[in-house]
Amino acid sequence: MGASKGVDMADRPHQEQRGLWWPEKVLVKEMQVLTAGSCLSGKIAFCPPCPKNADCHNHTHCVCHSGFQSMSGRKYFMESYEKCEDIDECNSGLKNCKKDAYCTNTDGSFYCSCFIKYPQFNWVANLIGLRPPGCYENTSEETPSSSSGNIWENLMINGSQKELAINITKILQQVELTIWKENFNSTGIHENSELDIVYETKRCNETSKKTFLAAGNNTMDINCNHIFKGPTRDQNAVAFITYRSLGNILNGSFFSERRGRQGVKLNSHIVSGTIGSEKKVNLSEPVSLTFQHTEPGGARTEYFCVYWEGSKEGGSWSTGGCNYKSSNDSYTKCECFHLSSFAVLMSLSPKADPVLTVITYVGLSLSLLCLLLAALTFLLCQPIQNTSTSLHLQLSLCLFMAHLLFLTGIDRTEPAVLCSIIAGALHYLYLAAFSWMLLEGLHLFLTVRNLQVANYTSASRFKKRFMYPLGYGIPALIVAVSAIIGYKNYGTRTHCWLKLEKGFIWSFMGPVAVIILVGEQ
Asked: pTM of this prediction?
């Protein structure tokens, strides 16, 4: 470059003819050589600063990555303020998805989702992210590979449990509605291998009270006459769906009503019942459901019927509106007062502490012996019989029968009717025992206050007016009212006692608390 400074301006045309370059051209040429050397050596000092999603091209310009375009629309640019934006192939006509396939735009690319054999469920493939090569118009082109494994498991790849619950809720609602519409006029048993479901649709029989449907060894018995009335009578079709793989996703972790239950997990396929309504349908007469177990239960197994309660915030399994009826090693029967998606959950009952069990049985056995001797003493010893011993006798008898029934019947949960009777009897006997304790305290208070221990008339009057109506009548009234209001709350799956759900235990704890408070006064 130093030698070029002495070139005469008048001699410029002759130098061009001899193939010589002017100083300005020589300078440009040297800069290009230096730039090329810088890029080759790994430095970018002379490459233009390229924005995100762009690379240096030919050591002189920037070019956007495939799937992006510059804001100005130019392919090559050098300006540092230029940006590369994503190309929306789905809305710009650049996609090559088949007609019914769903196109999803991604950062710098796109993909097509569909079920090749079941195009009516393409929206599910889009939600799941299923992208087989057959969804593209030219399958010989290089396209994203098909998802592997079970399609339901693709929902678990990304996102939180809340997002998973929201997506599952949408899928369940749309699958029910799609199946009902698609099979309204083509009733029968069908199967969808892509979604791994089996389902049956039927038109309700007006001559028969019940409509029976079966899918995948699970059954549903529903009274359609209570559902289809008035303008909906011509749409009297019902569908019953069994999801054979969804249970691996919506497992026991979505159940929040644990309350000390151990090892809660799904023990049936998930099923859905629908009459073509997008909303949950409440029923005046319950629908009967029979579930086949996916694994056998044991002696400590507790079964409970649940339904999927979806919401905008997610969803979870709930026992609301569903009642457990019975079960054996292979099946569980439930009754629900609405149509939705259902399943059977099981848990292991807490294992009894052997030391505590021995203490309980030995202690109650000794208590029975002592109570029997006390009752015989108060009953047979004539010299000591008075109002006080009569109160002691009734208390001893109530406690004796309550302890005896507890030892022999607290664990007899089958049949359920017998268990409910035992629970009601224990409820009554223990309330009666507390009532007689209250009467003893009241009698002692009156005796001390009046200082008339030997007054036969006063003792007799107390006995006739208060003893038996309060001691046996009040507990009987409490148990009768409790049984009328919540007779289903007598007897649990592990013990013959009051259920803790819905506060029913307060039919016992409430009166006991009142008796204790009165006794403290």
From this structure: 0.56
- At 106-139, the pLDDT tens digits run 888 888 888 776 676 776 777 766 777 778 887 6
Q: In the beta sheet, which residues pair with residue 190?
A: 199
Backbone angles phi, psi at 312, to 5 degrees: -65, -25
CA dihedral sign of residues 59, 62, 65, 66: negative
3-state secondary structure 446-513: HHHHHCCCCCHHHHHHHHHHHHHHHHHHHHHHHHHHHHHHHHHHECCCCCCCECCHHHCCHHHHHHHH
Name residue 95's amino acid: K
Q: Is the pLDDT of residue 168 over 80?
A: yes
Phi/psi of residue 113, nearest 5 degrees: -120, 140
Amino acid present at 505: I
Distances (CA, A) of 208 to 195, 221, 230, 271: 32, 12, 18, 24
446-458 exposure pattern, b = at least 16 Cβ within 10 A, e = fewer = ebeeeeeeeeeee
How far is Cα 337 from Cα 511, in angstroms, rounded to an integer? Answer: 33
- Collapse the DSSP code of 285 into the 3-class scheme (helix H, G, I; strand E, B; otherwise coil) and give the result: strand
Backbone phi, psi, residue 6, to 5°: -90, 15
Q: What percent of the chain has pLDDT over 90?
A: 22
Q: From the CA atom positions of the chain, what is the Rg in Å? A: 41
End-to-end alpha carbon distance in the chain: 114
Q: What is the pLDDT of residues 445-463, one digit of tens each?
A: 777 776 554 454 454 555 5
Tell me the C-alpha to C-alpha distance, in Å, between residue 238 and each of 187, 200, 334: 9, 8, 19
For the segment 44-63, the average pLDDT, to the nearest whole number, is 81
Taking each helix axis from N to C end, the angle separating 474-486 and 416-450, rounded to the nearest 10 degrees, works out to 150
Integer angstrom CA distances of residue 304 from 252, 258, 269, 382, 395: 12, 11, 14, 55, 38
Coil/strand/helix, residue 16: helix
Tell me how far CA of residue 50 lies from CA of 38, 54, 86, 484, in angstroms: 16, 6, 16, 80
- Please provide residue 15's backbone torsions phi and psi, each rounded to the nearest 5 degrees: -70, -35
DSSP conformation class of 353 = P
Peptide bond into 132 cis (omega under 30): no
